[in-house]
């Protein structure tokens, strides 16, 4: 029985639960959990601290959030959602808790073999591979193409029952009382090798194959290799019977496959899974290999798709790798990063060390010379450089340098003297800057209808408060950064008062619509907004090279029905898509999509991806989603068009999901400000008279105000 633990959700306080879940190890997902839960107690805490102290019970997850109905392990995309404020949802409240144990082996059937795995660098010679016949790449055991998934971190690990499909998974060590002699020997050999229950794996034998009663059987059973068979390589069983899981090519075939080999010290015939047997014998100096770090424990189960197997092959080409959640990180990305990070040539760099770290900081000579802050090189009144980069010698290097009183003093070969505060140099390093951006960009709270409806944190202030208190201005700007939306209430229902409220915080951006604009259904411009029709969720200005950063709307007159405002957190929708279908998300970050605005005497157009990521952090920075402004599709080759539309519909489905839309009536007297790079807006069809006033704020002006107020760095 698992030790009961408390749940952090307020409605569960006072109770303890057998099945609880830690916050995810991935910081982004842990931050998402923190945002969804919206518990004040957690707000000031870092997710790393939360992960070690707090748990969420199974009441707050759906059955679909688990690997299956009998599992205690969450899917990697699971988020808490049920019963966050009360215990009323039947699915979460009455879900039966699966037991900690697992049925004994006789229940699962004799087609299950338990082995202990370790990973070792192993590469057969090219001649050895070529010498294998096709028959030798056949086997008795078979694994499905490794349809395993990485489960969420669970306080008490208890894997589910092995399904009928072939699986590779972590299971606890079973009781050995009711198993066959052959299975018992395998278990004993595994334990003799130092395996713990958490490191025991099972390979399910295909039901159509002959049972293997003895792990050391001298017979070799053969079946036809399927075209989609998979082979793994370089995984070794550390037991008297050495078993190897390898990745290698099948002669005459292009596909990869999965192979498990059983090899005795006497080099007896091997039992293989899914592909066949190789005659290579492992060297006897395993202890030496261990001491040299050649062998590493399997740390986690990972999704082994064909693409990931190819990635794994590339990673293992240089030797042993650690099996953890970063194993299948995109190889192309790593190669790209390697290309962007050339080796340090010490002839052009100065090595500095911080007192709190032994890791050296390499600073290039040309960077130091370009960042000289003496009065000759830098104008301290205009905060601009005076030194031209063309005046810096190509072979710039110091004649001498010294560190004194927390400063680096350099005398250059051209006798120019520079002095740099060490904190200035250290704070300007890329790694620290990127970490700062990542921490900053993890702060915005992603929301859907349920979350934003319950959140008291987004800003609603009166016009009088805004005009009289600078702290209220900062509160409003912080709300725009955190939630992408803020409201100013008790504003007289006219364009002049709307303008006064906006100018208290931001300068107004003039576009083809003017500075302040008023519109209804009079069709003053060629835009669907100037009608009474339903207006779906969208962002404005996709046809501008620099879309407005903020949009302001104020309903100054309404006599009729309908016309409710819709707001959707585009960042939340994009994140949901990234978690569910990362390949779709990735493609939408790269498709060049053109938008345009056409009207007599005006033609604006711009081409950019629908999802824009920050060039340094990779975080989503902007959505350009507007089905109304899309131009003729001619920027994508026709052979890619079907895929684009399929991907575009996936994003559209996330955005238009009913759970995403915050719907409310915008009434006269309330000014709404929202982030046009993040929040999509729309409105329901209406009848009667509806007059809106509004304006835009440039993205650069919005961020300038946010920086001066200390909301962002």
Structure description:
By secondary structure, this protein is α+β, with helices and mostly antiparallel strands. Helices cover 24% and strands 22% of the residues. The chain is built from 20 helices and 33 strands. The strands form eleven sheets. The chain has a six-stranded mixed sheet with strand order 20-21-31-24-33-22. A hairpin with a 2-residue loop joins β17 and β18. α17 crosses α19 (641-655). The radius of gyration is 31 Å and the shape is globular. The two termini are 49 Å apart. The relative contact order is 0.08. Residues 103-179 and 183-302 have low confidence and may be disordered.
Characterize this entry briefly.
The protein has 713 residues and is α+β, with helices and mostly antiparallel strands. The chain has 20 helices and 33 strands.
Essential attributes:
713 residues, alpha+beta, six-stranded mixed β-sheet, five-stranded antiparallel β-sheet, 24% helix
Total DSSP helices:
20
Name the poorly predicted regions: 103-179, 183-302
Order of strands in the sheet with the most strands? 20-21-31-24-33-22
Class computed from helices, strands and strand pairing: alpha+beta
C-alpha geometry: globular
- Largest sheet properties: 6 strands, mixed
- Per DSSP E runs of 2 or more residues, the count of β-strands stands at 33
Beta-strand fraction estimate: 15-25%
> What is the helix fraction of residues, given as a range?
10-25%
Radius of gyration: 31 Å
Question: What does the average pLDDT come to?
Answer: 73
Terminal-residue CA separation:
49 Å
